[in-house]
Amino acid sequence: MSKTLMVLTFGSIIAQIIFSFYYSSNIVNQNNFLDEYKSEYQKLTLEIAETKKQLVNLTSIQHFQEGTPSANLFFNSKFINISN
Amino acid sequence: MKQRYKILLISFISCFIVLIARFFYWQVIKSPQLKAQALSQIYKLEKDIPTRGSIYSSDNFPLVINDYGYKISIYKPNLTEDLNSVLNTIDSIHPNFLKDNELVLNNFKTNQQQKWIDLNTVFSLSEKNKLQNINGLVISLVENRYYSENNLAKNILGFVAHNSQGHNIGYGGIEAYYNKQLQGKTGFIWSPQDATGKTILTKKSWNSNSTNGLNLYTSINRSIQYQTEKILSEGIEKYQADSGMIIIMETESGRILSMASATATTSASIDPSRNPNIANLFEPGSIFKPLVVTMALDKKTIDKDYICTQCHQPRSIGSFTINNWDNSTHPNSSLQDIIKNSDNIGMSYIISQLGLKNFLEYYQKLSLNKKTGIDIQGESKPTIKTNWPEIDLATASFGQGIVVTQINMLQAFNTLANDGVLVSPKIIDYFKNDLDQITYPKNQPPTTVFSQNSVKQIKSILKYAVENSVVSSLKPKNLEICGKSGTAQVAVKGNYTDSSIIGSYVGFSPCDKPKFTMIVTINNPKSSSWGSSTAAPIWFELASKINFLLLLRH
Hints:
- The complex is a heterodimer.
- Chain A is an all-alpha fold.
- Chain A is 76% helix and 0% strand.
- Chain A is rod-shaped.
- The N and C termini of chain A lie far apart (130 Å).
- Residues 75-84 of chain A have low confidence and may be disordered.
- By secondary structure, chain B is an alpha+beta fold.
- Chain B has 2 domains: 68-143, Penicillin-binding protein 2a (Domain 2); 222-553, Beta-lactamase, CATH 3.40.710.
- In chain B, 36% of the residues lie in helices and 24% in strands.
- Classes of the chains: A mainly alpha, B alpha+beta.
- At the A-B interface, α1 of A face β3, α10 and α19 of B.
Protein backbone atom coordinates (compact mmCIF):
# COMPACT_ATOMS: atom_id res chain seq x y z
CA MET A 1 0.00 0.00 0.00
CA SER A 2 2.69 2.36 1.07
CA LYS A 3 4.75 1.32 -1.96
CA THR A 4 1.87 2.12 -4.34
CA LEU A 5 1.37 5.46 -2.64
CA MET A 6 5.04 6.26 -2.99
CA VAL A 7 5.05 5.36 -6.71
CA LEU A 8 1.95 7.47 -7.27
CA THR A 9 3.43 10.40 -5.39
CA PHE A 10 6.75 10.30 -7.27
CA GLY A 11 4.93 9.68 -10.55
CA SER A 12 2.71 12.72 -10.11
CA ILE A 13 5.73 14.86 -9.14
CA ILE A 14 7.63 13.76 -12.25
CA ALA A 15 4.53 14.38 -14.44
CA GLN A 16 4.18 17.83 -12.95
CA ILE A 17 7.84 18.62 -13.64
CA ILE A 18 7.60 17.38 -17.25
CA PHE A 19 4.40 19.35 -17.80
CA SER A 20 5.87 22.53 -16.34
CA PHE A 21 8.96 22.17 -18.53
CA TYR A 22 6.79 21.67 -21.60
CA TYR A 23 4.46 24.53 -20.71
CA SER A 24 7.23 26.99 -19.86
CA SER A 25 9.17 26.15 -23.04
CA ASN A 26 5.95 26.75 -24.95
CA ILE A 27 5.61 30.20 -23.35
CA VAL A 28 9.24 30.97 -24.04
CA ASN A 29 8.80 29.95 -27.68
CA GLN A 30 5.69 32.07 -28.03
CA ASN A 31 7.44 35.04 -26.50
CA ASN A 32 10.40 34.60 -28.77
CA PHE A 33 8.06 34.56 -31.77
CA LEU A 34 6.36 37.66 -30.45
CA ASP A 35 9.69 39.38 -30.10
CA GLU A 36 10.73 38.36 -33.61
CA TYR A 37 7.46 39.56 -35.13
CA LYS A 38 7.79 42.86 -33.28
CA SER A 39 11.29 43.40 -34.69
CA GLU A 40 10.14 42.38 -38.16
CA TYR A 41 7.14 44.71 -37.95
CA GLN A 42 9.36 47.60 -36.88
CA LYS A 43 11.82 46.84 -39.65
CA LEU A 44 9.06 46.77 -42.27
CA THR A 45 7.53 49.99 -40.90
CA LEU A 46 10.89 51.72 -41.25
CA GLU A 47 11.44 50.33 -44.73
CA ILE A 48 7.98 51.50 -45.82
CA ALA A 49 8.68 54.97 -44.37
CA GLU A 50 12.04 55.08 -46.18
CA THR A 51 10.50 53.96 -49.49
CA LYS A 52 7.69 56.47 -49.11
CA LYS A 53 10.24 59.20 -48.50
CA GLN A 54 12.18 58.23 -51.61
CA LEU A 55 9.00 58.16 -53.69
CA VAL A 56 7.95 61.54 -52.37
CA ASN A 57 11.38 62.98 -53.15
CA LEU A 58 11.25 61.66 -56.70
CA THR A 59 7.83 63.20 -57.33
CA SER A 60 8.50 66.55 -55.63
CA ILE A 61 8.50 69.81 -57.58
CA GLN A 62 12.00 70.37 -56.22
CA HIS A 63 13.25 67.19 -57.90
CA PHE A 64 11.41 68.05 -61.11
CA GLN A 65 12.95 71.53 -61.21
CA GLU A 66 16.48 70.29 -60.53
CA GLY A 67 16.22 67.32 -62.87
CA THR A 68 14.84 69.11 -65.89
CA PRO A 69 16.28 72.55 -66.70
CA SER A 70 13.49 73.22 -69.20
CA ALA A 71 10.94 72.92 -66.38
CA ASN A 72 11.62 76.53 -65.49
CA LEU A 73 10.36 77.57 -68.89
CA PHE A 74 6.66 77.83 -68.35
CA PHE A 75 4.12 77.49 -71.15
CA ASN A 76 4.38 79.88 -74.06
CA SER A 77 1.70 82.49 -73.54
CA LYS A 78 2.60 84.69 -76.49
CA PHE A 79 2.19 84.05 -80.18
CA ILE A 80 4.58 85.21 -82.84
CA ASN A 81 2.90 86.24 -86.08
CA ILE A 82 5.17 85.79 -89.07
CA SER A 83 3.82 87.81 -91.94
CA ASN A 84 4.76 87.48 -95.56
CA MET B 1 18.60 22.13 35.68
CA LYS B 2 14.86 22.75 35.61
CA GLN B 3 15.52 26.44 35.86
CA ARG B 4 17.72 26.25 32.72
CA TYR B 5 14.97 24.47 30.75
CA LYS B 6 12.56 27.16 31.79
CA ILE B 7 14.92 29.88 30.58
CA LEU B 8 15.48 28.03 27.33
CA LEU B 9 11.76 27.53 26.84
CA ILE B 10 11.02 31.17 27.53
CA SER B 11 13.79 32.17 25.11
CA PHE B 12 12.35 29.91 22.42
CA ILE B 13 8.84 31.22 23.01
CA SER B 14 10.12 34.81 22.95
CA CYS B 15 11.99 34.19 19.72
CA PHE B 16 8.90 32.55 18.27
CA ILE B 17 6.74 35.52 19.29
CA VAL B 18 9.28 37.93 17.78
CA LEU B 19 9.33 35.84 14.62
CA ILE B 20 5.54 35.77 14.42
CA ALA B 21 5.43 39.51 15.04
CA ARG B 22 8.00 40.06 12.31
CA PHE B 23 6.04 37.85 9.92
CA PHE B 24 2.90 39.80 10.78
CA TYR B 25 4.72 43.05 10.11
CA TRP B 26 6.01 42.01 6.69
CA GLN B 27 3.11 39.88 5.54
CA VAL B 28 0.18 41.87 6.86
CA ILE B 29 1.19 45.44 7.60
CA LYS B 30 3.75 45.85 4.77
CA SER B 31 1.87 43.55 2.43
CA PRO B 32 0.34 46.20 0.07
CA GLN B 33 3.67 48.01 -0.34
CA LEU B 34 5.63 44.81 -1.00
CA LYS B 35 2.95 43.55 -3.37
CA ALA B 36 3.19 46.77 -5.36
CA GLN B 37 6.98 46.50 -5.47
CA ALA B 38 6.80 42.88 -6.60
CA LEU B 39 4.27 43.74 -9.30
CA SER B 40 6.41 46.61 -10.55
CA GLN B 41 9.33 44.18 -10.91
CA ILE B 42 7.29 41.51 -12.66
CA TYR B 43 4.97 43.79 -14.63
CA LYS B 44 5.93 46.72 -16.78
CA LEU B 45 3.94 49.58 -18.25
CA GLU B 46 4.83 50.36 -21.83
CA LYS B 47 3.61 53.29 -23.87
CA ASP B 48 2.36 52.56 -27.37
CA ILE B 49 3.16 55.81 -29.16
CA PRO B 50 0.83 56.46 -32.12
CA THR B 51 2.09 57.59 -35.52
CA ARG B 52 1.49 61.28 -36.18
CA GLY B 53 -0.77 61.93 -39.16
CA SER B 54 0.56 63.22 -42.49
CA ILE B 55 -0.53 66.40 -44.26
CA TYR B 56 -1.41 66.24 -47.96
CA SER B 57 -1.85 68.82 -50.72
CA SER B 58 -4.98 68.90 -52.90
CA ASP B 59 -3.34 66.49 -55.39
CA ASN B 60 -2.83 63.96 -52.54
CA PHE B 61 0.90 64.62 -52.42
CA PRO B 62 2.27 64.26 -48.88
CA LEU B 63 3.64 67.66 -47.87
CA VAL B 64 4.58 66.34 -44.40
CA ILE B 65 5.30 62.72 -43.54
CA ASN B 66 7.00 60.91 -40.69
CA ASP B 67 10.64 60.15 -41.09
CA TYR B 68 12.44 57.64 -38.94
CA GLY B 69 16.08 57.95 -38.09
CA TYR B 70 18.55 56.77 -35.53
CA LYS B 71 20.57 58.59 -32.90
CA ILE B 72 23.65 57.17 -31.23
CA SER B 73 25.15 57.32 -27.78
CA ILE B 74 28.74 56.32 -27.02
CA TYR B 75 29.73 54.49 -23.81
CA LYS B 76 33.51 54.62 -23.36
CA PRO B 77 33.94 51.48 -21.14
CA ASN B 78 32.31 49.26 -23.80
CA LEU B 79 34.50 50.48 -26.69
CA THR B 80 36.78 47.74 -28.04
CA GLU B 81 38.62 50.16 -30.34
CA ASP B 82 40.26 53.52 -29.74
CA LEU B 83 37.69 56.37 -29.47
CA ASN B 84 39.28 58.38 -32.30
CA SER B 85 39.22 55.38 -34.58
CA VAL B 86 35.51 54.79 -33.77
CA LEU B 87 34.68 58.44 -34.46
CA ASN B 88 36.53 58.34 -37.79
CA THR B 89 34.60 55.19 -38.77
CA ILE B 90 31.31 56.95 -37.95
CA ASP B 91 32.43 59.98 -39.97
CA SER B 92 33.18 57.76 -42.98
CA ILE B 93 29.65 56.31 -42.71
CA HIS B 94 27.94 59.70 -42.15
CA PRO B 95 29.88 62.58 -43.77
CA ASN B 96 30.30 65.74 -41.65
CA PHE B 97 29.61 63.80 -38.43
CA LEU B 98 32.86 65.04 -36.84
CA LYS B 99 32.34 68.59 -38.06
CA ASP B 100 28.74 68.77 -36.80
CA ASN B 101 29.65 67.45 -33.35
CA GLU B 102 33.14 68.96 -33.08
CA LEU B 103 32.58 70.89 -29.87
CA VAL B 104 30.90 68.16 -27.79
CA LEU B 105 33.21 65.44 -29.09
CA ASN B 106 36.37 67.40 -28.23
CA ASN B 107 35.10 67.75 -24.69
CA PHE B 108 34.14 64.07 -24.56
CA LYS B 109 37.61 63.01 -25.75
CA THR B 110 39.49 65.08 -23.19
CA ASN B 111 37.19 64.68 -20.19
CA GLN B 112 38.17 61.39 -18.54
CA GLN B 113 35.24 61.63 -16.08
CA GLN B 114 32.67 61.64 -18.91
CA LYS B 115 31.89 58.06 -19.86
CA TRP B 116 28.69 58.60 -21.85
CA ILE B 117 27.54 60.98 -24.57
CA ASP B 118 24.27 61.36 -26.51
CA LEU B 119 24.70 62.81 -30.01
CA ASN B 120 22.07 64.67 -32.02
CA THR B 121 23.11 63.51 -35.49
CA VAL B 122 20.33 61.52 -37.16
CA PHE B 123 21.43 58.43 -39.13
CA SER B 124 19.52 56.68 -41.89
CA LEU B 125 18.55 53.00 -41.87
CA SER B 126 21.48 51.98 -44.12
CA GLU B 127 23.91 53.98 -41.97
CA LYS B 128 22.48 52.39 -38.83
CA ASN B 129 23.09 48.91 -40.27
CA LYS B 130 26.78 49.78 -40.73
CA LEU B 131 27.02 51.25 -37.21
CA GLN B 132 25.52 48.18 -35.55
CA ASN B 133 28.81 46.28 -35.55
CA ILE B 134 30.72 48.89 -33.55
CA ASN B 135 31.00 47.97 -29.88
CA GLY B 136 30.26 50.71 -27.37
CA LEU B 137 27.53 52.38 -29.41
CA VAL B 138 23.91 52.46 -28.27
CA ILE B 139 21.51 53.12 -31.13
CA SER B 140 17.99 54.47 -30.55
CA LEU B 141 15.11 55.10 -32.94
CA VAL B 142 13.79 58.65 -33.36
CA GLU B 143 10.76 59.97 -35.24
CA ASN B 144 10.96 63.26 -37.12
CA ARG B 145 8.74 65.23 -39.46
CA TYR B 146 9.87 65.28 -43.08
CA TYR B 147 8.85 68.17 -45.32
CA SER B 148 8.93 66.74 -48.83
CA GLU B 149 9.01 70.06 -50.65
CA ASN B 150 11.50 71.65 -48.24
CA ASN B 151 10.22 75.10 -47.37
CA LEU B 152 7.11 75.00 -49.56
CA ALA B 153 4.06 76.21 -47.61
CA LYS B 154 6.11 76.22 -44.40
CA ASN B 155 4.07 79.13 -42.99
CA ILE B 156 0.89 77.13 -43.50
CA LEU B 157 2.22 73.82 -42.23
CA GLY B 158 4.02 74.90 -39.04
CA PHE B 159 6.43 72.49 -37.36
CA VAL B 160 6.71 69.87 -34.62
CA ALA B 161 9.07 70.07 -31.64
CA HIS B 162 9.42 68.81 -28.07
CA ASN B 163 7.61 70.74 -25.36
CA SER B 164 8.92 71.15 -21.81
CA GLN B 165 7.63 67.66 -20.89
CA GLY B 166 9.49 66.12 -23.82
CA HIS B 167 6.33 65.42 -25.84
CA ASN B 168 6.11 66.17 -29.56
CA ILE B 169 3.61 68.92 -30.26
CA GLY B 170 2.83 71.18 -33.20
CA TYR B 171 3.84 74.83 -33.28
CA GLY B 172 2.26 77.30 -35.70
CA GLY B 173 0.17 76.61 -38.81
CA ILE B 174 -1.77 73.39 -39.33
CA GLU B 175 0.54 71.36 -37.06
CA ALA B 176 -0.56 73.47 -34.08
CA TYR B 177 -4.20 74.07 -35.04
CA TYR B 178 -4.88 70.38 -35.65
CA ASN B 179 -2.35 69.01 -33.13
CA LYS B 180 -5.01 66.94 -31.35
CA GLN B 181 -6.19 65.26 -34.57
CA LEU B 182 -2.65 64.75 -35.90
CA GLN B 183 -1.08 63.27 -32.76
CA GLY B 184 -3.67 60.51 -32.19
CA LYS B 185 -4.14 58.69 -28.87
CA THR B 186 -1.32 57.06 -26.91
CA GLY B 187 -1.87 53.40 -25.97
CA PHE B 188 -0.64 51.57 -22.84
CA ILE B 189 0.43 47.95 -22.30
CA TRP B 190 0.59 46.49 -18.78
CA SER B 191 2.11 43.02 -18.92
CA PRO B 192 4.53 40.67 -17.11
CA GLN B 193 8.12 40.68 -18.24
CA ASP B 194 10.86 38.11 -18.21
CA ALA B 195 14.32 38.55 -16.66
CA THR B 196 15.56 40.31 -19.82
CA GLY B 197 12.67 42.75 -19.77
CA LYS B 198 10.80 41.19 -22.72
CA THR B 199 7.00 41.07 -22.58
CA ILE B 200 5.47 37.68 -21.61
CA LEU B 201 2.13 36.81 -23.13
CA THR B 202 -0.32 35.94 -20.38
CA LYS B 203 -3.99 36.41 -19.72
CA LYS B 204 -3.08 38.88 -17.01
CA SER B 205 -1.78 41.42 -19.58
CA TRP B 206 -3.85 44.53 -20.04
CA ASN B 207 -3.65 46.98 -22.87
CA SER B 208 -5.44 49.97 -24.36
CA ASN B 209 -4.71 50.29 -28.05
CA SER B 210 -3.17 53.41 -29.47
CA THR B 211 -4.97 55.28 -32.24
CA ASN B 212 -2.80 56.75 -34.96
CA GLY B 213 -3.24 60.42 -35.83
CA LEU B 214 -5.54 61.44 -38.66
CA ASN B 215 -4.16 62.31 -42.07
CA LEU B 216 -5.10 65.82 -43.11
CA TYR B 217 -6.02 66.63 -46.72
CA THR B 218 -5.63 70.31 -47.46
CA SER B 219 -6.92 72.55 -50.22
CA ILE B 220 -3.37 73.71 -50.98
CA ASN B 221 -2.63 73.31 -54.68
CA ARG B 222 1.03 72.33 -54.76
CA SER B 223 1.74 73.79 -58.22
CA ILE B 224 -0.01 77.08 -57.45
CA GLN B 225 1.73 77.29 -54.07
CA TYR B 226 5.09 76.78 -55.77
CA GLN B 227 4.37 79.46 -58.40
CA THR B 228 3.05 81.84 -55.72
CA GLU B 229 6.20 81.57 -53.60
CA LYS B 230 8.47 81.82 -56.65
CA ILE B 231 6.76 84.86 -58.19
CA LEU B 232 6.47 86.59 -54.81
CA SER B 233 10.20 86.21 -54.10
CA GLU B 234 11.09 87.44 -57.60
CA GLY B 235 8.67 90.38 -57.18
CA ILE B 236 10.16 91.41 -53.84
CA GLU B 237 13.61 91.43 -55.41
CA LYS B 238 12.46 93.20 -58.58
CA TYR B 239 10.58 95.97 -56.75
CA GLN B 240 13.16 96.17 -53.93
CA ALA B 241 10.47 95.66 -51.32
CA ASP B 242 10.93 94.76 -47.66
CA SER B 243 8.46 91.90 -47.77
CA GLY B 244 5.31 90.65 -49.45
CA MET B 245 2.29 88.39 -49.01
CA ILE B 246 -0.11 86.60 -51.33
CA ILE B 247 -3.26 84.56 -50.72
CA ILE B 248 -5.31 82.82 -53.40
CA MET B 249 -8.76 81.50 -52.58
CA GLU B 250 -11.26 79.41 -54.52
CA THR B 251 -14.10 81.89 -54.89
CA GLU B 252 -17.19 79.80 -54.28
CA SER B 253 -15.94 77.53 -51.50
CA GLY B 254 -13.39 79.69 -49.66
CA ARG B 255 -10.79 76.92 -50.01
CA ILE B 256 -7.28 78.39 -49.83
CA LEU B 257 -5.32 77.38 -52.93
CA SER B 258 -2.08 78.99 -51.84
CA MET B 259 -0.73 81.35 -49.21
CA ALA B 260 2.77 82.76 -49.16
CA SER B 261 4.84 85.39 -47.45
CA ALA B 262 8.46 86.32 -47.99
CA THR B 263 11.00 88.87 -46.86
CA ALA B 264 13.83 90.50 -48.76
CA THR B 265 16.46 89.18 -46.37
CA THR B 266 17.43 85.89 -47.85
CA SER B 267 19.60 85.11 -44.85
CA ALA B 268 16.59 85.29 -42.52
CA SER B 269 15.09 81.87 -42.07
CA ILE B 270 11.34 81.45 -42.37
CA ASP B 271 9.57 81.47 -39.02
CA PRO B 272 6.93 78.75 -39.41
CA SER B 273 5.34 79.60 -36.07
CA ARG B 274 4.15 82.97 -37.38
CA ASN B 275 2.15 83.45 -40.54
CA PRO B 276 2.06 87.14 -41.59
CA ASN B 277 -0.90 86.55 -43.95
CA ILE B 278 -3.15 85.95 -40.95
CA ALA B 279 -1.17 87.64 -38.17
CA ASN B 280 -0.08 91.03 -39.55
CA LEU B 281 -2.55 93.90 -39.42
CA PHE B 282 -2.40 96.58 -42.12
CA GLU B 283 -4.38 99.48 -43.51
CA PRO B 284 -5.80 98.21 -46.81
CA GLY B 285 -5.82 101.54 -48.68
CA SER B 286 -7.67 101.92 -52.00
CA ILE B 287 -8.43 98.20 -52.40
CA PHE B 288 -11.13 98.91 -49.82
CA LYS B 289 -12.98 101.34 -52.13
CA PRO B 290 -15.02 98.75 -54.10
CA LEU B 291 -16.42 97.43 -50.80
CA VAL B 292 -17.62 100.90 -49.75
CA VAL B 293 -19.18 101.52 -53.19
CA THR B 294 -21.01 98.15 -52.96
CA MET B 295 -22.25 99.02 -49.45
CA ALA B 296 -23.69 102.29 -50.76
CA LEU B 297 -25.23 100.60 -53.83
CA ASP B 298 -26.69 97.82 -51.67
CA LYS B 299 -28.14 100.27 -49.15
CA LYS B 300 -29.39 102.36 -52.11
CA THR B 301 -27.84 105.55 -50.73
CA ILE B 302 -26.43 105.96 -54.26
CA ASP B 303 -27.39 104.31 -57.56
CA LYS B 304 -25.35 103.13 -60.51
CA ASP B 305 -25.84 106.48 -62.26
CA TYR B 306 -24.31 108.42 -59.36
CA ILE B 307 -22.31 111.47 -60.38
CA CYS B 308 -19.98 113.22 -57.98
CA THR B 309 -20.82 116.87 -58.48
CA GLN B 310 -18.45 118.03 -55.74
CA CYS B 311 -15.39 116.23 -57.05
CA HIS B 312 -13.97 119.29 -58.81
CA GLN B 313 -12.01 120.33 -55.73
CA PRO B 314 -10.38 118.79 -52.62
CA ARG B 315 -12.77 118.24 -49.71
CA SER B 316 -12.20 120.01 -46.43
CA ILE B 317 -13.38 118.41 -43.19
CA GLY B 318 -12.49 120.52 -40.16
CA SER B 319 -8.80 121.24 -40.35
CA PHE B 320 -8.17 118.30 -42.69
CA THR B 321 -8.17 118.28 -46.50
CA ILE B 322 -8.95 115.20 -48.55
CA ASN B 323 -7.04 115.10 -51.81
CA ASN B 324 -6.29 112.58 -54.51
CA TRP B 325 -3.10 110.54 -54.72
CA ASP B 326 -1.81 112.68 -57.64
CA ASN B 327 -3.41 115.91 -56.36
CA SER B 328 -5.66 115.95 -59.43
CA THR B 329 -9.45 116.40 -59.39
CA HIS B 330 -12.05 114.72 -61.58
CA PRO B 331 -15.17 116.88 -61.91
CA ASN B 332 -18.51 115.11 -62.38
CA SER B 333 -17.03 111.64 -61.99
CA SER B 334 -19.27 108.62 -62.46
CA LEU B 335 -18.95 105.60 -60.17
CA GLN B 336 -16.83 103.87 -62.81
CA ASP B 337 -14.48 106.86 -62.96
CA ILE B 338 -14.24 107.14 -59.17
CA ILE B 339 -12.99 103.54 -59.02
CA LYS B 340 -10.88 103.82 -62.19
CA ASN B 341 -9.16 107.02 -60.98
CA SER B 342 -9.11 105.78 -57.35
CA ASP B 343 -10.74 109.08 -56.42
CA ASN B 344 -10.45 109.74 -52.67
CA ILE B 345 -12.61 112.85 -52.86
CA GLY B 346 -15.45 110.99 -54.59
CA MET B 347 -15.19 108.11 -52.11
CA SER B 348 -15.41 110.46 -49.12
CA TYR B 349 -18.75 111.80 -50.46
CA ILE B 350 -20.07 108.27 -51.10
CA ILE B 351 -19.34 107.14 -47.52
CA SER B 352 -20.90 110.34 -46.14
CA GLN B 353 -24.10 109.41 -47.97
CA LEU B 354 -23.85 105.84 -46.67
CA GLY B 355 -23.51 107.05 -43.07
CA LEU B 356 -21.56 105.64 -40.15
CA LYS B 357 -24.32 103.30 -38.91
CA ASN B 358 -24.74 101.59 -42.27
CA PHE B 359 -20.96 101.44 -42.79
CA LEU B 360 -20.41 99.70 -39.44
CA GLU B 361 -23.32 97.34 -40.12
CA TYR B 362 -21.68 96.14 -43.37
CA TYR B 363 -18.25 96.16 -41.73
CA GLN B 364 -19.54 93.62 -39.23
CA LYS B 365 -21.41 91.59 -41.88
CA LEU B 366 -18.15 91.34 -43.81
CA SER B 367 -16.45 89.98 -40.65
CA LEU B 368 -13.85 92.73 -40.81
CA ASN B 369 -14.08 93.28 -37.06
CA LYS B 370 -13.26 89.69 -36.12
CA LYS B 371 -11.14 86.69 -37.00
CA THR B 372 -12.09 84.82 -40.15
CA GLY B 373 -11.75 81.50 -38.31
CA ILE B 374 -9.28 80.06 -40.82
CA ASP B 375 -7.93 76.74 -39.59
CA ILE B 376 -4.32 77.81 -39.04
CA GLN B 377 -2.93 78.85 -35.68
CA GLY B 378 -1.94 82.46 -35.06
CA GLU B 379 -4.74 84.52 -36.61
CA SER B 380 -4.89 88.08 -35.25
CA LYS B 381 -8.13 89.78 -34.37
CA PRO B 382 -8.55 93.10 -36.19
CA THR B 383 -9.28 96.10 -34.03
CA ILE B 384 -11.95 98.68 -34.77
CA LYS B 385 -12.20 102.10 -33.23
CA THR B 386 -15.18 103.13 -31.12
CA ASN B 387 -14.98 106.86 -31.75
CA TRP B 388 -15.68 107.95 -35.34
CA PRO B 389 -15.24 111.67 -36.09
CA GLU B 390 -16.32 112.74 -39.61
CA ILE B 391 -12.76 112.78 -40.94
CA ASP B 392 -12.19 109.16 -39.82
CA LEU B 393 -15.29 107.99 -41.65
CA ALA B 394 -14.09 109.86 -44.74
CA THR B 395 -10.60 108.29 -44.66
CA ALA B 396 -12.15 104.84 -44.05
CA SER B 397 -13.77 105.17 -47.51
CA PHE B 398 -10.30 104.78 -49.04
CA GLY B 399 -9.07 102.21 -46.53
CA GLN B 400 -7.03 104.43 -44.22
CA GLY B 401 -7.55 104.46 -40.44
CA ILE B 402 -8.88 100.90 -40.37
CA VAL B 403 -6.79 97.79 -39.82
CA VAL B 404 -7.40 94.25 -41.00
CA THR B 405 -5.36 91.15 -41.74
CA GLN B 406 -4.72 90.13 -45.33
CA ILE B 407 -7.05 87.13 -44.95
CA ASN B 408 -9.80 89.47 -43.61
CA MET B 409 -9.46 91.69 -46.67
CA LEU B 410 -9.52 88.75 -49.07
CA GLN B 411 -12.57 87.22 -47.40
CA ALA B 412 -14.46 90.52 -47.62
CA PHE B 413 -13.48 91.18 -51.26
CA ASN B 414 -14.42 87.60 -52.17
CA THR B 415 -18.08 88.41 -51.41
CA LEU B 416 -18.02 90.67 -54.49
CA ALA B 417 -16.81 87.72 -56.56
CA ASN B 418 -19.21 85.25 -54.93
CA ASP B 419 -22.54 86.95 -55.71
CA GLY B 420 -22.55 88.79 -52.38
CA VAL B 421 -22.14 85.64 -50.26
CA LEU B 422 -19.49 85.64 -47.52
CA VAL B 423 -17.68 82.32 -47.17
CA SER B 424 -15.10 81.49 -44.51
CA PRO B 425 -11.58 80.67 -45.67
CA LYS B 426 -10.47 77.12 -44.92
CA ILE B 427 -7.44 74.97 -45.47
CA ILE B 428 -8.51 71.45 -44.49
CA ASP B 429 -10.87 69.62 -46.86
CA TYR B 430 -11.18 66.41 -44.84
CA PHE B 431 -9.52 63.99 -42.39
CA LYS B 432 -8.83 60.33 -43.13
CA ASN B 433 -7.94 57.65 -40.59
CA ASP B 434 -5.98 54.39 -41.07
CA LEU B 435 -9.16 52.61 -42.16
CA ASP B 436 -9.72 55.19 -44.92
CA GLN B 437 -12.76 56.57 -43.10
CA ILE B 438 -13.33 60.19 -43.98
CA THR B 439 -14.58 62.92 -41.65
CA TYR B 440 -15.05 66.59 -42.40
CA PRO B 441 -14.18 69.62 -40.28
CA LYS B 442 -17.00 71.88 -39.13
CA ASN B 443 -17.34 74.92 -41.36
CA GLN B 444 -19.14 78.16 -40.71
CA PRO B 445 -22.24 78.48 -42.92
CA PRO B 446 -22.07 81.11 -45.70
CA THR B 447 -23.99 84.36 -45.16
CA THR B 448 -25.40 86.77 -47.71
CA VAL B 449 -24.04 90.31 -47.35
CA PHE B 450 -24.87 92.02 -50.66
CA SER B 451 -27.69 91.54 -53.14
CA GLN B 452 -26.86 89.97 -56.49
CA ASN B 453 -27.84 93.21 -58.24
CA SER B 454 -25.34 95.28 -56.21
CA VAL B 455 -22.61 92.75 -56.94
CA LYS B 456 -23.42 92.76 -60.64
CA GLN B 457 -23.02 96.55 -60.69
CA ILE B 458 -19.69 96.56 -58.85
CA LYS B 459 -18.35 93.79 -61.08
CA SER B 460 -19.08 95.87 -64.16
CA ILE B 461 -17.33 98.87 -62.50
CA LEU B 462 -14.27 96.77 -61.57
CA LYS B 463 -14.04 95.28 -65.05
CA TYR B 464 -14.20 98.77 -66.57
CA ALA B 465 -11.53 99.99 -64.13
CA VAL B 466 -9.12 97.19 -65.01
CA GLU B 467 -9.56 97.71 -68.75
CA ASN B 468 -9.29 101.49 -68.67
CA SER B 469 -6.87 102.30 -65.85
CA VAL B 470 -3.08 102.42 -65.76
CA VAL B 471 -2.87 98.67 -65.15
CA SER B 472 -4.70 97.74 -68.37
CA SER B 473 -1.44 97.34 -70.32
CA LEU B 474 -0.25 94.74 -67.81
CA LYS B 475 -3.38 92.60 -67.95
CA PRO B 476 -2.98 89.25 -69.75
CA LYS B 477 -5.02 89.43 -72.96
CA ASN B 478 -6.66 86.04 -72.47
CA LEU B 479 -8.00 86.79 -68.99
CA GLU B 480 -11.06 88.65 -67.81
CA ILE B 481 -10.20 90.33 -64.51
CA CYS B 482 -12.14 92.36 -61.95
CA GLY B 483 -9.70 93.99 -59.56
CA LYS B 484 -8.48 97.07 -57.77
CA SER B 485 -5.05 98.34 -56.85
CA GLY B 486 -4.27 100.24 -53.69
CA THR B 487 -1.46 102.16 -52.08
CA ALA B 488 -1.71 102.73 -48.37
CA GLN B 489 0.52 105.01 -46.39
CA VAL B 490 1.90 103.49 -43.22
CA ALA B 491 1.37 105.33 -39.97
CA VAL B 492 4.66 105.86 -38.14
CA LYS B 493 4.33 107.19 -34.57
CA GLY B 494 0.79 108.41 -35.27
CA ASN B 495 1.55 110.19 -38.56
CA TYR B 496 1.36 109.00 -42.15
CA THR B 497 4.60 109.21 -44.10
CA ASP B 498 5.46 108.79 -47.77
CA SER B 499 8.62 106.91 -46.83
CA SER B 500 6.77 103.71 -46.01
CA ILE B 501 3.88 102.38 -48.09
CA ILE B 502 1.97 99.16 -48.71
CA GLY B 503 1.11 98.43 -52.35
CA SER B 504 -1.76 96.00 -52.91
CA TYR B 505 -3.84 94.45 -55.64
CA VAL B 506 -6.97 92.39 -55.05
CA GLY B 507 -9.25 90.86 -57.62
CA PHE B 508 -10.84 87.80 -59.15
CA SER B 509 -11.03 86.09 -62.51
CA PRO B 510 -13.09 85.69 -64.61
CA CYS B 511 -15.63 88.34 -63.59
CA ASP B 512 -18.61 86.02 -64.08
CA LYS B 513 -18.44 82.84 -62.03
CA PRO B 514 -14.85 83.47 -60.87
CA LYS B 515 -12.51 80.55 -60.25
CA PHE B 516 -10.25 82.34 -57.83
CA THR B 517 -9.85 85.51 -55.77
CA MET B 518 -6.35 86.73 -55.06
CA ILE B 519 -4.70 89.43 -52.97
CA VAL B 520 -1.10 90.61 -53.34
CA THR B 521 0.51 92.93 -50.79
CA ILE B 522 3.99 94.39 -51.20
CA ASN B 523 5.54 96.20 -48.24
CA ASN B 524 7.60 99.28 -48.86
CA PRO B 525 8.72 98.82 -52.49
CA LYS B 526 11.60 101.15 -53.41
CA SER B 527 11.41 100.91 -57.21
CA SER B 528 7.92 102.44 -57.33
CA SER B 529 5.57 103.84 -54.71
CA TRP B 530 2.34 102.51 -56.17
CA GLY B 531 0.43 99.28 -55.83
CA SER B 532 -0.51 99.50 -59.51
CA SER B 533 3.12 99.21 -60.59
CA THR B 534 4.30 96.68 -57.99
CA ALA B 535 1.53 94.44 -56.63
CA ALA B 536 -0.56 94.53 -59.83
CA PRO B 537 2.14 93.08 -62.18
CA ILE B 538 2.71 90.25 -59.69
CA TRP B 539 -1.06 89.64 -59.53
CA PHE B 540 -1.37 89.48 -63.33
CA GLU B 541 1.66 87.23 -63.83
CA LEU B 542 0.41 84.83 -61.20
CA ALA B 543 -3.18 84.97 -62.50
CA SER B 544 -2.16 83.78 -65.96
CA LYS B 545 -0.29 80.83 -64.45
CA ILE B 546 -3.09 79.95 -62.03
CA ASN B 547 -5.57 80.03 -64.87
CA PHE B 548 -3.41 77.55 -66.76
CA LEU B 549 -2.90 75.32 -63.71
CA LEU B 550 -6.62 75.31 -62.87
CA LEU B 551 -7.38 74.40 -66.49
CA LEU B 552 -5.01 71.43 -66.13
CA ARG B 553 -6.90 70.28 -63.05
CA HIS B 554 -10.29 70.13 -64.78
